[in-house]
């Protein structure tokens, strides 16, 4: 099967370059986001070629020579880029083997760390590098079976030593000759238009090189970060703003989501005549679930650098997609795509479409004001928590029926919210924040949802993996977007899995069944059953923690219905607030490339999801995001994180699957069910704060 | 109004001219080129910018230059010289990080904890390490690995 990555980049040379010096340079379009992808891909290349992994250098994505693989998203980097590099590597190995046989006059060679050996004779990739051309098309099935040496081992992360020693590694640390430093003044609230600004007063400050005003876009460039910060504060004091803020506030988000104009897309439709009639008179359970807008909350703010000179525009960025960003920057600047080049440099942790692309365009705009000088731009914490796109707020309605035995006979899902992607180049006009402020710019159009083939957005994991009879599912994507929303780790799966799994526990309770047994009763998929059974063993299900306020909850899903299988059990104590006591996770990501890397991703995802689920909510009023500091947007801390045990079900014969998002939904689900187990209160509106528990109690009473 | 300041950073004297309110963080990153100390929030809320001031951990982002004047600053760069600090070795051994952005600040604070534990000849407990690091935010979810690494470092196992 050809992957999109191979279709778009069909030549071996687009992926792999073998040099006479004994080094393999491998290229990927997938960004290192802190998830360790560069290490895992190097392992795959090493085994495909039959060389030691230490010889493999991974080149960061770039629009110069790197493959175009769209975005680093959807837990597809190992599936897409890994499979492409695997196939390209095997195809290269075949070509070199043929050449090695020809050069040595033998029929067969064996391969050892890049050396082709036949009896006493030997040659190597390095010796043959100049005589084998790799501008050759390959397909996904290229090459024969190769052994696993690097794959399946917990190779240490390649980037971690620099980070622990404080060596320059992040884009934040990039310093180029003649570099200047920029800052951008974001408006005080959404909808604000610049009334007045006296640029001269700012330009006169020490070190200021340029003050850029274009419509409502205001930026400063100075010789040092310190002077840029001072100039920004002077501009803030100097600027006046007009214009009306959008009316929606935190309190009415749920109403807004279900009442705003929307485009409805059926994701699954049952045959009404055949199935609905059978459910008449059966027990019916209907409930509404919701989550608020969520912030990415990377510890390092978004950052970028740009240089405009005779050669065009160069951009250094921690984007998830160098090619799509290039396209959107070119569209926004109205220049040919070829006039822009984009290179990836590592940033702080990235969990979706954050401010990386926006700040890259900020830097580009400022670079035009100082031709020939690179400009480095860093966002503030307030920009990061207040102006980066948010993970969309959502409302989900589920109605199900079951027969007298408790067997589920029908399932109806309706999901409401903004689309989950306003990524660069995917909308009809650029989706770069500053473009919306420029005089010739355009407001960012409402987000889209990825198509069903890409796992949908609002509807991601909307359809249960269980046998639930006739299924109807309709996604209602809002066609207005007062609060900018885009992709956040696992998209709609976070709330959908939460909702399905709360619903399953309620149905189990109605049927008088154990939640695990009830799930297994409705689950045919053997790999799904296996992770549930594994997690049950790990936590000695159905043993419950003791104590009045103690509870245990279970959550399960196969990510996107096509990705990794994951089951989570969590024990909590729910007194003044919910405190996690222990967590167990079983996961099946198919063939495991780097076991420790998978465990790290699964555990990290679970902790982040627990933070979203227990604590997080973007709050806004009068167009201003008020949760733009860590005090106002608290996240889980060291004292809150419980012991977590992760078990991998290794499937060496199965295709590899991504690990980055699989634990998000099941963790949220397990927490909700544990809270119910501990308190008897079913809370369906996230986050699971004391306030929402009290609200649910009042509703229940 | 810019004034001149004297700072001992990692054992080297520096004269810096800046507004006395300028946060130490930006002097380190910008004027002295020591980019290992991270900017996270600018408000002393996340711990990413932690450095040692006369041996005690402080948030360099809300330490104004006037208050650092004449004092000795130790940054992440110095902990790794000439040999990596036991905390750094343990963090690498445990692969205790994902994006790693929070690690500079955590490493600096944990180095003090571990040094104290070594001088008193005892191993840190899980609760002690969590309490000490609770003001350091990590978004990737590497908490438990970091705690395990710091405990190991205190036990002399790294």
Task: Count helical runs of chain A.
Answer: 18
The number of helical segments of chain B is: 7
What is the CA-atom radius of gyration of chain B, in angstroms? 16 Å
**Form type of chain B:** globular
Q: How many DSSP-defined strands of chain A? A: 26
CATH level-1 class of the largest domain in chain A: Alpha Beta
Global structural class of chain A: alpha+beta
CATH class of the largest domain in chain B: Alpha Beta
Which whole number gives the mean pLDDT of chain A? 95
Largest sheet of chain B: 5 strands, mixed
Number of domains of chain B: 2
How far apart, in Å, are the first and last alpha carbons of chain B?
48 Å
Largest interface: A-B, 61 and 59 residues
Order of helices and strands of chain B: EEHEEHEHHHHH
Task: From the structure above, extract its key features.
heterodimer; A: 701 residues; alpha+beta; Aldehyde Oxidoreductase, domain 4; 3 domains; five-stranded mixed beta sheet; 18 helices; 30% helix; B: 158 residues; DNA polymerase, domain 1; 2 domains; 5 strands; 39% helix
């Amino acid at each position: 099967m050809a992957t999109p990555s191979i279709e778009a980049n069909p030549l071996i040379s687009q992926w792999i370059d073998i040099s006479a010096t004994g080094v393999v340079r491998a290229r990927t379009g997938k960004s290192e986001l802190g998830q360790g992808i560069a290490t895992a891909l190097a392992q795959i290349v090493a085994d495909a070629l039959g060389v030691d992994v230490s010889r493999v250098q991974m080149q960061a994505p770039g629009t110069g020579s790197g493959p175009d693989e769209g975005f680093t998203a959807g837990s597809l980097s190992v599936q897409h880029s890994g499979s492409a590099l695997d196939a390209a590597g095997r195809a290269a190995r075949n070509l070199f083997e043929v050449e090695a046989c020809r050069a040595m006059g033998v029929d067969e060679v064996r391969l050892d760390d890049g050396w082709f050996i036949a009896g006493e004779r030997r040659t190597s990739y390095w010796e043959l590098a100049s005589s084998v051309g790799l501008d050759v098309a390959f397909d996904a099935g290229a090459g024969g079976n190769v052994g696993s040496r690097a794959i399946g081992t917990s190779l240490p992360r390649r980037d971690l030593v620099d980070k622990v020693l404080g060596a320059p590694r992040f884009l934040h640390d990039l310093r180029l000759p003649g570099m200047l430093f920029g800052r951008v003044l974001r408006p005080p609230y959404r909808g604000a238009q610049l009334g007045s600004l006296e640029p001269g007063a700012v330009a006169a400050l020490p070190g200021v090189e340029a003050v850029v005003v274009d419509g409502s876009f205001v930026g400063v460039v100075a010789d040092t970060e310190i002077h840029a910060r001072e100039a920004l504060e002077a501009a803030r004091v100097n600027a006046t703003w007009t214009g009306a803020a959008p009316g929606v506030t935190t309190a009415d988000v749920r109403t807004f989501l279900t009442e705003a104009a929307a485009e409805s897309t059926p994701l699954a439709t049952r045959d009404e005549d055949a199935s609905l009639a059978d459910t008449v008179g059966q027990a019916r359970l209907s409930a509404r679930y919701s989550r608020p807008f969520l912030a990415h909350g990377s510890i390092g703010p978004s950052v970028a650098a740009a240089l405009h000179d005779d050669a065009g525009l160069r951009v250094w960025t921690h984007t998830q997609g160098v090619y799509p960003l290039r396209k959107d920057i070119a569209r926004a600047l109205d220049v040919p795509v070829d006039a822009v080049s984009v290179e990836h440099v590592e940033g702080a942790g990235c969990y979706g479409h954050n401010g990386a692309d926006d700040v890259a365009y900020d830097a580009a705009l400022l670079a035009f004001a100082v031709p020939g000088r690179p400009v480095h731009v860093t966002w503030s914490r307030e920009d990061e928590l207040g102006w980066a796109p948010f993970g969309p707020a959502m409302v989900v309605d589920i109605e199900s029926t079951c027969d007298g035995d408790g067997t589920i006979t029908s399932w109806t899902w309706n999901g409401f919210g903004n689309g989950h992607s306003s990524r660069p180049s995917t909308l009809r006009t650029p989706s770069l924040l500053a473009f919306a402020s420029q005089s010739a710019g355009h407001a960012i159009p409402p987000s889209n949802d990825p198509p069903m083939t890409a796992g949908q957005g609002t509807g991601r994991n909307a359809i249960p993996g269980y046998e639930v009879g006739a299924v109807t599912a309709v996604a209602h994507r809002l066609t207005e977007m007062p609060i900018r929303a885009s992709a956040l780790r696992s998209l709609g799966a976070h709330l959908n899995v939460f909702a399905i799994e709360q619903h399953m526990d309620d149905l189990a309770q109605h049927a008088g069944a154990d939640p695990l047994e009830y799930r297994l009763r409705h689950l045919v998929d053997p790999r799904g059953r296996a992770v549930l059974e594994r997690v049950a063993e790990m936590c000695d299900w159905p043993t419950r923690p003791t104590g009045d306020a103690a509870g245990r909850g279970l959550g399960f899903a196969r990510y996107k219905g096509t990705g990794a299988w994951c089951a989570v059990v969590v024990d909590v104590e729910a007194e003044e607030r919910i405190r996690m006591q222990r967590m167990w996770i079983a996961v099946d990501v198919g063939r495991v490339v780097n076991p420790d890397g998978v465990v790290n991703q699964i555990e990290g995802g679970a902790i982040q999801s627990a933070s979203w689920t227990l604590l997080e909510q973007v709050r806004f009023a009068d167009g201003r995001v008020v949760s733009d500091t860590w005090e106002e947007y608290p996240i889980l801390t060291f004292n809150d994180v419980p012991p977590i045990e992760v078990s991998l079900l290794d499937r060496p014969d199965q295709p590899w699957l991504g690990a980055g998002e699989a634990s998000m939904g099941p963790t949220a689900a397990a927490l909700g069910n544990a809270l119910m187990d501990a308190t008897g209160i079913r809370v369906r509106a996230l986050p699971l704060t004391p306030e929402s528990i009290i609200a649910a109690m009042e509703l229940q009473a | 109004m810019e004034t001149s300041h004297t700072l001992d950073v990692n054992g080297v004297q520096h004269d810096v001219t800046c507004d006395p309110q300028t946060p130490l963080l930006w002097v380190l990153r910008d004027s002295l080129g020591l980019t290992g100390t991270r900017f996270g929030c600018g408000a002393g809320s996340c711990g990413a910018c932690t450095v040692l001031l006369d041996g005690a951990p402080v948030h360099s982002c809300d330490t104004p230059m006037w208050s650092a004047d004449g004092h000795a600053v130790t940054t992440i760069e110095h902990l790794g010289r000439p040999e990596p600090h036991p905390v750094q070795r343990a963090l690498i051994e445990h692969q205790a990080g994902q994006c790693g952005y929070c690690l500079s600040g955590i490493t600096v604070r944990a180095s003090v904890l571990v040094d104290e534990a070594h001088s008193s000849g005892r191993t840190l407990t899980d609760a002690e390490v969590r309490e000490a690091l609770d003001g350091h935010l990590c978004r990737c979810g590497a908490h438990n690995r970091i705690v395990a690494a710091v405990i190991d470092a205190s036990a002399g196992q790294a």
